[in-house]
Write a structure and sequence with these properties.
The complex is a heterodimer of chains A (268) and B (662). Chain A has 268 residues and is of the alpha/beta class. Chain A contains 13 helices and eight strands. Chain A folds into two domains: 119 residues, Glutathione S-transferase Yfyf (Class Pi), Chain A, domain 2; 124 residues, Rossmann fold. In chain A, the strands form two sheets. A four-stranded parallel β-sheet of chain A has the order 2-1-3-4. A four-stranded parallel β-sheet of chain A has the order 6-5-7-8, sandwiched between helices. The relative contact order of chain A is 0.16. With 662 residues, chain B is of the alpha/beta class. In chain B, 27% of the residues lie in helices and 25% in strands. Chain B has 18 helices and 34 strands. The longest helix of chain B is centred in the first third of the chain and has 19 residues. The radius of gyration of chain B is 31 Å and the shape is globular. The chains are: A alpha/beta (268), B alpha/beta (662). Chains A and B meet through loops of A and strand 24 of B.
Chain lengths: 268, 662
C-alpha cells in the first residue's frame, strides 16, 4: 500500500513525535508513506480570499506531485488536511481558481483535483479497516479510558471534508476500540479549542479548552487524543494539562509495539 | 368555411394595461374566416357572455376565439356560454393573452404583436375544429377514504351523512391517527381524546361507513366515477367476528418488549395488542415479528386464554376488491427523523424529546401516567427548554424548507400546561419567530407569556450538551439582547418538523395524483381548488396536502367531502371527447403507443380492415375512450401518424404553428 505523504511544517518542529509515531506505525501495518519532494508549508489556514491564488499554490504543488506518482495523498495534521482537501476541492470545482492556478503553475498537464486526499485516520478506517488493525495490535491498551478530541478542522465543512458526522462523529472512538482501549464519548469533543485565537486572546481560548477538559473529565476520560498540533498545544497550555493530551499516532505506535523505535528516532 | 367571432378581453387593466386590445380585435378581422371581432372590459362577466351569445346568434357564427386569460381559468365558462347560444362547446378556442402575454411583458408594442400572433394561432385552429360530442360514464356511488385520522374520519362522516357509502382504509390496527396521541388541543385546551373518541365511535357505528383497519390500498385502476381498488387486509391473527375485546390475551401475553408505536417507543407493549385503550375496533392484532408463537412455534398462551376462541394463527392476508366513484386521500403526517440534528443530542440523551413524545409523557395513558418526569431517571424537572423550528424553515438539505405551522401553538400550549400544573418549573422557549395567526391563537400565545410567565427567547440553539451529572446545557443566542446564553436544563423538548406520511408517495403513484418536492399532494389550483387533486375524482383532506392544525384539517375534511358528494350525486359524468383515435389504415401494429400511454387506455386487437379494396385482418391499436385522458403522448410517439387526438389533431396543431410563423 503506497501513498504520497505530506507531513507539514509542525511535524518537523513542535510535533516531531506525531510524525515519527505515524511512520513507524505505518511500517508495522505495511503502509508505505512516501514523503513528497520539496513540499512547502500549506499555510496553516485555508485562505478564504477568493481572489488570491498564491496562498493555495503550495497545496496544489503537493497534490500535483501525488498525481504524478498516481498515488493518494496522505496527511497527518488536521490543519494541513483541512487546507489541502479544501484547495483540492477548489481545483476540482471552482473554474476561476483552477484556471488561474494552472496558468501560474504551467504544469505539464493542468491539475484539476484528481488526487484523493486522505487523512491517516481515513487510511486506517477505509483502506486497512479497524477490524484488520485490531488483529495487528500486539499490546492492547486495555483498561484505558480515552476521550477522542476531534476539534473542528477534520469535521467541517462536513460535506466537503466528508470525514464523519460533524455533530456525532465516531471514527476516533472506533480507532480507540480497535486498539483495545475504551472510548469515552463526551459532548465537547467536536467543539473548537480556540485555534490561533490563543495567540491574541489567551483567556478566550483558555475558557474554551476548560470546557472541553471539564466535559471529558466529567464523563470519565483519563486522557485525550488528537490529530492536531494546535489543539494539543492549546489544551495543554491553557488547562495546565489537567488530563494528558497525546497524538493519536502515539497510542497507535504503543498498541502496535513500536513506540520505542519511534522515540529513538525523535531523539536522534 | 367557418364564420368565426373573435372576442378580446381587457381583464380590467390586467390585459389592457400591456396589450392594445382594440388593435388585436381590429387585426382579427383580417384573418381568414373571421366575420366578427370586438373587445370588452370583462368578457367573463354576464354582460361579456351576453355579447358572445348575441354575436353567435346575429352573425350565425360557427366558431369563436376568446382572447383572455388561461383556458384553465375560463375555458369552461366560455364553452358553456357558447353552448347556451346553440354552438357546439368544442368550437370555442382560447388565446391566452394574459398569463402568456400581458402579465409577463412590459412593452406595449411588443406585447400587442404577440397577442395578435396568439389570436391568429387560435383562429387558425378554430378553422379546423369540428363539433365534438361528450360521452357519458357511470358513477359508482361509494367513496374511499385513505387514512383514518381526524381528517379521514371527518370526511367519511360528512359523506356518509349525505347518504353515500364510504369505506375508510387505515394502515394501523385502529382509527384515530395522530390526534389520538395528543393530550390537549389548542387554543381551548380541551382533551384530545374527549373530542376525538365520540367521532371515532360515530364513524364505527354509522351504517354507511365501513372501516378497514390494519389494511392498505394495494392497487387502483379506473378513473373518476369508476375506480376499482384492491385493499389488502393484513392478517390480524384475531377473528374480528369472534373477539369480544376483553383484553385478557394482552394481559397474559409473555412477550412484552415490542416498542409501543402509540407511545412513540417510550415504553413497550405486548405482541398481541390494541394500540390504545379506546382503539376502534377494539380487536387486537398479533405483531408477528414480536410474537413468540410465530418466532419459535412455542407459546400459544393467547389462544389458550381466549374464551371466544378468536385467535387464529393461520389467518392470511386477504385482498378485497371494491368499486368507488371518488377517492379521498387523508394520509396525514409524521415528525421527521432527527438523525441529521445530532447537535440537539436527541439520540444521546433520553431527556431530549420531541414535542409529540411530550404529548405522550403528559397524557394519563402515557408511559409516565401523565407525570412530568425525566425519562432518564424519573426525576421531576425544574428547568425545561423548548427549541422551536427543529427541521422547519431550514435552508439546507437537513430539514424542510417550509414552516410546519403547528409548532408555535403547541409549544405555547405545552409551556402553559406545564406552568399551570407545575408552577415551580421554569420554562424557556427558543424561537425564530412566533407565528400564531388564527382565531384566538395570538391571545393564547400572549397568555403563555404574560399570564404564565413563560420565558421566550428570540434566537436559535446551537448545541445541547449532556453533562456528566445528567443535566443538559443549552447553548444558544439571544438576538434581542445580543448575547450568548448557556442555560442548564433538566429536559429539552424539540418542536420537530412534520412531513407527509412516507407512504404517500406510493399512494400518489397508484392514484396518478401529483406530489410536490416535499411529498405534499398538489392541489388542482392553489387558491380556487384547494381540496381537489389535478387528477379527476381524487380529493385531499388534512396534512397530506400541507401542514395544518386540527380546526383547519376538519374544515378541509368537510370541504373534501362536499367535493366528493358533488361527484357522487351525479348519475352520469360527461367524458372528455378530446381523446385519441387510431386510423386503422395507417396503424402498423407496432405497440409504441401502448407503451407510452400512462393511463393504460390503448390495447391491440385483430381487426378486419378494408385497405383500398383489400380486405385483411390486421393487429391495430384501439383506444378506450373512457380511460383516455387526451394527453397526446401516443400521437407524438406513433411512427406512422395513425394516432390523432380529437380537438387537437395534428392538422390543427400544424395550422397553429404556421399561423405563429407567418
Amino acid at each position: 500500500m503506497k501513498y504520497s505523504y505530506y507531513p507539514g511544517c509542525t511535524l518537523r518542529t513542535k510535533a516531531k513525535n506525531l510524525d515519527a509515531y505515524a511512520r513507524v506505525s505505518a511500517n508495522a501495518l505495511g503502509i508505505d508513506l512516501e514523503e513528497i519532494e520539496d513540499w512547502q508549508c500549506c499555510g496553516g489556514v485555508y485562505p478564504l480570499g477568493s481572489d488570491e491564488i498564491a496562498t493555495k499554490l503550495s497545496s496544489v504543488r503537493a497534490l500535483h506531485a501525488a498525481k504524478e506518482k498516481g498515488q493518494s495523498l496522505v496527511t497527518m495534521c488536521s490543519a494541513c488536511h483541512h487546507v489541502i482537501k479544501r484547495v483540492n476541492d477548489d481545483m476540482k470545482n471552482v473554474e476561476d481558481i483552477r484556471t488561474r492556478a494552472n496558468n501560474y503553475m504551467e504544469l505539464p498537464e493542468p491539475y484539476a483535483g484528481e488526487t484523493e486526499v486522505l487523512h491517516f485516520l481515513e487510511v486506517l478506517r477505509d483502506k486497512i479497516g479497524f477490524d484488520e488493525l485490531k488483529k495487528k495490535v500486539v499490546n492492547p491498551l486495555a483498561g484505558k479510558k480515552i476521550g477522542a478530541y476531534y476539534g473542528c478542522l477534520l469535521l467541517r465543512p462536513s460535506k466537503l471534508l466528508s470525514f464523519d458526522d460533524p455533530e456525532n462523529p465516531t471514527i476516533i472512538e472506533d480507532f480507540i476500540r480497535a486498539l483495545g482501549a475504551e472510548p469515552v464519548i463526551y459532548p465537547y469533543r467536536n467543539e473548537c479549542c480556540g485555534g490561533y485565537i490563543s495567540l491574541k486572546e489567551k483567556e478566550m481560548s483558555k475558557n474554551m479548552c476548560e470546557k472541553i477538559m471539564e466535559s471529558a473529565e466529567g464523563f470519565g476520560a483519563g486522557m485525550l487524543i488528537t490529530a492536531c498540533p494546535l489543539c494539543l498545544y492549546n489544551l495543554n497550555k491553557s488547562t495546565g494539562a489537567r488530563l494528558p493530551v497525546v497524538y493519536f499516532t502515539e497510542l497507535l505506535a504503543e498498541a502496535l509495539g513500536v513506540k520505542e523505535e519511534a522515540e529513538k528516532e525523535v531523539q536522534a | 368555411m367557418q364564420r368565426i367571432g373573435v372576442f378580446v378581453c381587457h381583464c380590467g387593466s390586467n390585459i389592457a394595461g400591456a396589450v392594445d386590445v382594440s388593435k388585436v380585435a381590429e387585426m382579427a378581422l383580417m384573418e381568414p374566416g373571421v366575420v366578427h371581432a370586438e373587445d370588452y372590459q370583462y368578457m367573463c362577466s354576464e354582460a361579456g357572455q351576453a355579447k358572445i351569445a348575441a354575436a353567435i346568434l346575429e352573425k350565425s357564427l360557427t366558431g369563436i376565439v376568446v382572447c383572455s386569460c388561461s383556458p384553465r381559468m375560463h375555458e369552461a365558462t366560455f364553452r358553456k356560454a357558447a353552448e347556451r347560444a346553440g354552438l357546439n362547446p368544442y368550437m370555442v378556442e382560447i388565446a391566452n393573452i394574459r398569463e402568456h402575454c400581458s402579465w409577463i411583458h412590459k412593452d406595449m408594442e411588443e406585447a400587442t404583436k404577440k397577442a395578435v400572433i396568439l389570436m391568429r394561432a387560435a383562429v387558425a385552429k378554430v378553422n379546423l375544429n369540428t363539433p365534438l360530442q361528450a360521452g357519458e360514464s357511470r358513477v359508482t356511488k361509494r367513496a374511499l377514504v385513505i387514512g383514518g385520522g381526524i381528517a379521514g374520519i371527518q370526511t367519511a362522516l360528512d359523506i356518509a351523512d349525505a347518504g353515500y357509502e364510504v369505506d375508510i382504509v387505515e394502515k394501523t390496527p385502529s382509527i384515530g391517527g395522530r390526534m389520538s396521541q395528543l393530550d390537549k388541543t389548542f387554543p381551548t385546551l380541551d382533551c384530545s381524546a374527549c373530542i376525538l373518541t365520540p367521532k371515532m365511535v360515530e364513524a364505527a357505528a354509522h351504517d354507511k361507513i365501513k372501516i378497514y383497519t390494519y389494511s392498505e390500498v394495494e392497487k387502483v385502476s379506473g378513473f373518476v366515477g369508476d375506480f376499482t381498488v384492491d385493499i389488502r387486509k393484513k392478517a390480524r391473527s384475531v377473528d374480528m367476528n369472534k373477539c369480544t375485546g376483553c383484553g385478557v390475551c394482552q394481559e397474559k401475553c409473555p412477550s412484552k418488549k415490542a416498542p409501543s408505536e402509540f407511545n412513540r417507543g417510550l415504553n413497550t407493549r405486548s405482541a398481541i395488542y390494541t394500540p390504545f385503550a379506546q382503539a376502534i375496533p377494539n380487536v387486537p392484532v398479533i405483531d408477528r415479528e414480536a410474537c413468540i408463537k410465530f418466532k419459535t412455534g412455542k407459546c400459544g398462551i393467547c389462544s389458550k386464554v381466549c374464551q371466544a376462541g378468536a385467535i387464529d394463527y393461520e389467518q392470511k392476508d386477504e385482498i378485497v376488491t371494491e368499486k368507488y366513484g371518488a377517492i379521498v386521500v387523508a394520509t396525514g403526517f409524521d415528525t421527521i427523523q432527527l438523525d441529521k440534528y445530532d447537535e440537539y443530542a436527541y439520540g444521546q440523551s433520553k431527556d431530549v424529546i420531541t414535542s409529540l413524545e411530550l404529548e405522550r409523557v403528559m397524557n394519563a395513558a402515557g408511559p409516565t401516567h401523565g407525570h412530568l418526569e425525566r425519562l432518564s431517571d424519573g426525576k421531576a424537572p425544574k428547568e425545561i427548554v423548548f427549541i422551536q423550528c427543529v427541521g422547519s424553515r431550514c435552508a439546507d438539505d437537513r430539514g424542510k424548507p417550509y414552516c410546519s405551522k403547528i409548532c408555535c401553538m403547541y409549544t405555547a400550549k405545552h409551556a402553559m400546561l406545564i406552568r399551570d400544573k407545575y408552577p415551580d418549573v421554569n420554562v424557556t422557549v427558543f424561537y425564530i419567530d412566533v407565528r400564531t395567526p388564527g382565531k384566538n391563537f395570538d391571545e393564547f400565545y400572549r397568555r403563555a407569556v404574560e399570564q404564565y410567565g413563560v420565558n421566550y427567547i428570540k434566537g436559535q440553539v446551537g448545541k445541547v450538551i449532556p453533562k456528566p451529572d445528567g443535566k443538559l446545557l443549552v447553548q444558544g443566542s439571544d438576538l434581542l439582547d445580543n448575547r450568548q446564553i448557556l442555560k442548564e436544563a433538566d429536559m429539552v423538548v424539540l418542536a420537530t418538523a412534520i412531513e407527509p406520511n412516507p407512504d404517500v408517495r406510493k399512494i400518489a403513484t397508484m392514484l396518478t395524483a401529483s406530489i410536490d418536492t416535499n411529498n405534499f399532494l398538489t392541489e388542482a389550483h392553489a387558491k380556487l381548488r384547494p381540496v381537489e387533486s389535478p387528477t379527476a375524482g381524487i380529493f385531499l383532506s388534512g396534512v397530506c396536502q400541507g401542514p395544518k392544525d386540527i380546526p383547519e384539517t376538519v374544515a378541509q375534511a368537510g370541504a373534501a367531502a362536499v367535493k366528493a358528494i358533488g361527484l357522487l350525486a351525479k348519475d352520469k359524468l360527461m367524458t372528455n371527447p378530446c381523446t385519441a383515435q387510431a386510423d386503422v389504415l395507417l396503424c402498423n401494429g407496432c405497440s409504441t403507443c401502448e407503451n407510452v400511454c400512462p393511463y393504460g387506455a390503448i390495447t391491440y386487437e385483430d381487426k378486419e380492415v378494408n385497405d383500398h379494396g383489400i380486405r385483411e385482418t390486421r393487429r391495430v391499436a384501439v383506444v378506450n375512450n373512457a380511460l383516455c385522458q387526451g394527453c397526446g403522448a401516443c400521437t407524438v410517439a406513433c411512427p406512422s401518424g395513425a394516432m390523432d387526438l380529437q380537438g387537437f389533431s395534428n392538422r390543427q396543431i400544424i395550422a397553429e404553428v404556421d399561423a405563429i410563423c407567418r
